TrEMBL record, chain A:
Species of the source: Candidatus Fischerbacteria bacterium RBG_13_37_8
Any GO MF annotation of the entry: electron transfer activity
Source species, domain of life: Bacteria
Pfam families found in the cross-reference section: ETF
PANTHER family (UniProt xref): ELECTRON TRANSFER FLAVOPROTEIN BETA-SUBUNIT
Residue ranges of every copy of the Electron transfer flavoprotein alpha/beta-subunit N-terminal domain listed in the record: 23-213
Protein name (record): Electron transfer flavoprotein alpha/beta-subunit N-terminal domain-containing protein
From TrEMBL, chain B:
Superkingdom, taxonomy of origin: Bacteria
Membrane spanning residue stretches: none
Family annotation (Pfam families): Acyl-CoA_dh_1 (PF00441), Acyl-CoA_dh_M (PF02770), Acyl-CoA_dh_N (PF02771)
The protein, known as: Acyl-CoA dehydrogenase
Alphabetic keyword roster: FAD, Flavoprotein, Oxidoreductase
Coiled-coil segments on the chain, per record: none
Species name: Candidatus Fischerbacteria bacterium RBG_13_37_8
Length: 262, 381
């Protein structure tokens, strides 16, 4: 089984996000960067499939220089190969640009499955997996919570629907995107981390994949960021004092007329 | 000169931080109140490679450098000082002497189970009446055919309570003074090896510190580590690594205290402004951060020397002395910033202070570290 996993390096979910001086990007100074948590489920699933069926796992990312650290973490978890499509115009590229680049990189390799996290934490567009499937003309199941190979070229992929689950049979090669709960991702071991040093990361440019600078970043994107805003500050809470009976009446009044919750 | 972590050092630190926050943090308070780290979790840490960190891969270890192992111990101590010393001692004075001085047979028989986490390592020098004055130990090993018979009492043995592999220091030649001390590898299953009373400690209460009694404990003579009379040398060598580990542990405790103090200072108001806006609080935090950074640089320097097979007795002593004394001060100041809440068991500040206190005592007291440092600098002049 040839398994490809596409990952994205994102700010740690625990990081405090500040808006950059241009008003439309995140200031990454002092922010820890990690493999997007949903992508870790995809990496883990690929490792489990490989452990059961044999084959090879390759992780791909589209991103700036620093994204190599994220690839390194996947290698430390046990992934065999890594491809880094290096590009500084990554943050300003929209989902379709990202998907086009990833699809082009995937096409350079043999594959039976392409795995994604269901969305990159941070932007949370959740578009790239579906777009890549479309661009490669592959069947897809997204937001998968359970996955099982049932033959050489067939699998069952399950996702949650309102109040239940939907079980899909899917022909390979296919694209799946992983939801939390698909598995419990392993930690990289010290040995894995040491071994990852010996695994080379193959670097590619967008030119290698047939793209020009006009086709990426803001210039190549159909959706561009105009403005990023932090969530509005939480208004201060109200303390209601007085006798319980009156206080409750006042609370109900506030919930009904001010908060409009009742 | 280059002061920068490599990509794998950063990756190792991140991995340990994740493991600690997800797998250990939820249990820390229970471990401390139960005075026990459950043995069942050790194989998990062993699988990650934490039980034979600097042992080369050819012997089953993880083969990381001392600098990385400092980052590991610091990250562990940031969450649990008890677990940090358990793992540090296991590595530095449990695994290391067997790796460095053991024969191939000894390595096969004792090092592998240590690395796999099946056995926990400990090192027993201290006795009820011999601490800093190592040469005053009374435990004896008497040769009898192809065996040695060990008799004596060892006190304050970190990890002694788990049972496992103990490196026991005992006198083989009473006339030879310090040169008459030898090291033995003793399995706690041996007859006459008695795990005795658990020490009732001020801090690191989950760490298994016990007394060990050797009562006609007969072991095969092939369990002698190195040669007869080499005990002191083995101990001093292993303790360099142990001291670097305690320095890293002290730093981790300090880091935790300052992180909590900063959080609190930014959230709590007094006299109409955040605590963090009072200069008195800022100065405490600035001093604490400076001490942590100094301690870390000293510790990494010692680790760097050890990685390059250079002598590090002075640097390890300096790192341990400074980092441990700093941790007492830093944790007390952090507690002070918390005020009454710092004194409450509801917050971990009082635990940090109690945990930090031992770092100036074990693996050589601050006074012993000063003797080591003075000896080295006077010798050099």
């Amino acid at each position: 089984m040839e398994l490809i996993i596409c990952i994205k390096q994102v700010p740690d979910t625990a990081a405090k996000i500040k808006i950059g001086s241009n008003g439309k990007s995140i200031d990454l100074t002092d922010v820890d960067l990690v493999v997007s948590p949903f992508d870790e489920y995809a990496v883990e699933e690929a490792l489990r499939i490989k452990e059961a069926k044999g084959g090879k796992t390759t992780v791909i990312t589209f991103g700036p220089e620093r994204a190599s650290q994220a690839l390194r973490q996947c290698l430390a978890m046990g992934i065999d190969d890594a491809i880094h499509v290096k590009c500084d115009e990554f943050e300003t590229s929209d989902s379709l640009v990202t998907a086009s680049i990833l699809a082009a990189a995937i096409k350079t390799l043999p594959f039976d499955m392409v795995l994604f996290g269901k969305q990159g934490v941070g932007r949370d567009n959740a578009q790239v997996p579906a777009m890549v499937a479309e661009l490669l003309n592959l069947p897809q199941v997204v937001v998968v919570t359970k996955f099982e190979l049932i033959s050489e070229n067939k699998a069952l992929a399950q996702y949650e629907v309102e109040g239940g689950v939907a079980v899909n049979e899917i022909m390979l090669p296919a694209v799946i995107s992983a939801e939390k709960g698909l598995n419990e991702p392993r930690y990289p071991t010290l040995k894995g981390i040491m071994a990852s040093k010996k695994k080379p990361i193959k670097e590619m440019t967008i030119n290698d994949l047939g793209f020009t600078l006009e086709q990426v970043g803001e210039a190549g994107s159909k959706v561009v960021f105009r403005k990023l805003m932090p969530p509005p500050a939480r208004p201060e809470g109200k303390v209601i004092t007085g006798e319980p009976k009156e206080a409750v009446a006042q609370l109900i009044d506030l919930l009904r007329n001010e908060a409009k919750l009742l | 000169m280059k002061i920068e972590f490599t990509e794998d050092q950063l990756c190792i630190r991140q991995m340990v931080r994740d493991v600690m926050e997800k797998e250990v943090l939820p249990h820390v308070e229970t471990w401390e109140s139960n005075e026990l780290i459950p043995k069942e979790i050790f194989p998990t840490f062993a699988e990650l490679g934490l039980f034979g960190m600097v042992i080369p891969e050819t012997y089953g270890g993880a083969g990381i450098d001392y600098i990385s192992s400092c980052l590991v111990i610091e990250e562990i101590a940031r969450i649990s000082a008890s677990l940090a010393i358990t793992i540090s001692v296991h590595n530095s004075v449990g695994c290391y002497p067997v790796f460095k001085y053991g024969t191939d047979t000894q390595k096969q028989k004792y090092l592998l189970p240590l690395i796999k986490g099946e056995k926990i390592g400990c090192f027993a020098i201290t006795e009820p009446n011999a601490g800093s004055d190592v040469a005053a130990i009374k435990t004896k090993a008497v040769k009898d055919g192809d065996t040695y018979i060990l008799n004596g009492t060892k006190a304050w043995v970190t990890n002694g309570g788990f049972g496992g592999i103990a490196i026991i220091q005992a006198i083989t030649d009473p006339a030879a003074g310090p040169k008459g001390i030898s090291s033995f590898i003793v399995d706690s299953d041996s007859k006459g090896f008695i795990i005795s009373k658990k020490e009732d400690k001020m801090g690191i209460r989950a760490s298994a510190t016990n007394e060990i009694i050797l009562e006609d404990c007969r072991i095969p003579s092939e369990n002698l580590l190195g040669k007869e009379g080499m005990g002191m040398r083995i101990a001093l060598d292993a303790l360099d690594g142990g001291r670097i580990g305690v320095a890293a542990q002290a730093i981790g405790i300090s880091v935790a205290a300052v992180e909590k103090a900063c959080e609190y200072a930014k959230a709590r108001t007094s006299f109409g402004q955040n605590l963090a806006d009072h200069q008195a609080i800022q100065f405490m935090l600035a001093d604490a951060a400076t001490k942590i950074e100094s301690a870390r640089l000293l510790t990494l320097k010692a680790a760097y020397l050890k990685d390059n097979n250079l002598r590090c007795a002075k640097e390890a002593a300096m790192a341990k002395l400074f980092a441990s004394e700093a941790s007492i001060d830093v944790t007390y100041k952090a507690l002070q910033i918390f005020g009454a809440y710092g004194y409450s068991k509801e917050f971990p500040l009082e635990r940090y202070s109690r945990d930090a206190r031992v770092t100036t005592i074990y693996e050589g007291t601050s006074e012993i570290q000063r003797i080591v440092i003075a000896r080295e600098i006077l010798k050099a002049l």
